[in-house]
Amino acid sequence: MVTAEEAVAGIRSGQQLYLQAASAVPSVLLDALVARAPELEDVKIVHLHVEGPGPHLAPEMAGHFRHRALFIGPNARAAVNEGRAEYIPVFLHDVADLFLSGLVPLDAVLVNVSPPDAHGFCSLGTSVEGTLAAIRAADTVIAQINHSMPRTLGDGFVHADTIDFGVEVDVLPYEHQLETIGDVEERIGKYVAGLVPDGATLQMGIGGIPTAVAMALTDHRDLGVHTEMFTDVVVDFVERGVINGRRKEVNRGKIVSTFMMGTKRLYDFVHDNPMVEMRPAEYTNDTAVIRRFSRMTAINSAIEVDLSGQICADSIGRQLFSGVGGQMDFIRGAALAPEGRAIIALPSTAARGTRSRIVPFLTEGAGVVTTRAHVRTVVTEWGAAELYGRSIAERARALIGISHPDFRAELEAAARTTHYL
Q1: Which entry of 51, 185, 228, 381 is annotated as an active-site residue?
Q2: DSSP labels, 75-91
Q3: Domain with CATH 3.40.1080.20 in the chain
């Protein structure tokens, strides 16, 4: 047990580190490391989306730290698009393999864990994702022993003997407030909820649309959750009895996730709660696991959808925006599940209604996250388009039908020019 400054004192120039993700960012350790910037060069920091200011991503840190993004969070977008950071496209379920195979070697890992229990085990709390694999692969494990980190159950424990340096702190994981939903999100939520049967197992992400979908599920029964992440919305529906997991084929009665982002209410709910099981992403996002749930319903979003059904979800043209994440893991898993449903839900327009998000062709430089062969159902505030088993012409008609009315004539003309119609 040492100070934060002593804990990071052994990190040297040229080394590569992993930083625990999402709300569990070990902020005290990160601040201590950034304070050493003048004496460090080219320290590579690998992580998924992280909450908080991300001081290592500031322009003045260029040359001292170089972020290697497995998923680009809002605080990392400028650094990536200005060339001060790198992006590694990867499915979330493959992150652990990058570390354990040595393709992305790790000299150290910085984590944020609960105090050890009577048996010496610390919980990774609000975020397991690829952290457990990083701990196994890294030469040095540096941990915040955090009295405010909830002790979550499942497969996210590290024994105190594994930790090389521990720093005692009392810092609440980063909080994330639910997004405010408007009329568009509410309409999308109702359309999506109409596609969800009772007894379904849900995967939902973060943002206005997942919140709106959840709020539209009030009258559903016996829903389960198997997801990569969840928010405060889940707490509401457990308390109302809508989510109980009774009909899940795997992990019956359990909410299974690999990370969470929410408020203190959520963190209090998950603390020592046997209903919640935190698992590594190589389990939660394994298509072979996902497909075992009858009525598995995956709800994901997109930046653009072209008239053939290609989904761009990680970039706005050439500007990198987020990442591949778990979209394909769950879209494919849900499609293979008995009575499964793979849904892409998005508003029909962007830029305050001046731009259609259903387009004849993806913008130059846009990344295809979900291929046209994988996409099944696309939902906007104007309805649902079923694309599975449909020709390009049938897809184009269906997608034009759920585009904003202001753009339908333009889309139809483009489709005829390209002989889609």
Answers
A1: 228
A2: GGHHHHHTTSSEE---B
A3: 183-417
User: Torsion over CA of 399, 405, 407 and 413, rounded to 10 degrees?
Assistant: 70
Report domain 183-417's class: alpha beta
Q: Which CATH number fits domain 4-169: 3.40.1080.10, 3.30.9.10, 3.40.640.10, 3.30.70.980?
A: 3.40.1080.10
129 class by beta-carbon count within 10 Å (0-12 exposed, 13-18 middle, 19+ buried): buried
The two structure tokens encoding residue 117: 């229990």
Tell me the sheet residues that pair with 361: none
Q: What is the pTM of this model?
A: 0.96
- Tens-place pLDDT, residues 73-131: 999 999 999 999 999 999 999 999 999 999 999 999 999 999 999 999 999 999 999 99
Could you tell me the CA-to-CA distances from 21 to 112, 144, 172, 376 in Å, in that order?
A: 9, 14, 14, 30
- 129 is a catalytic site residue: no
Structure tokens at 50: 């992280």
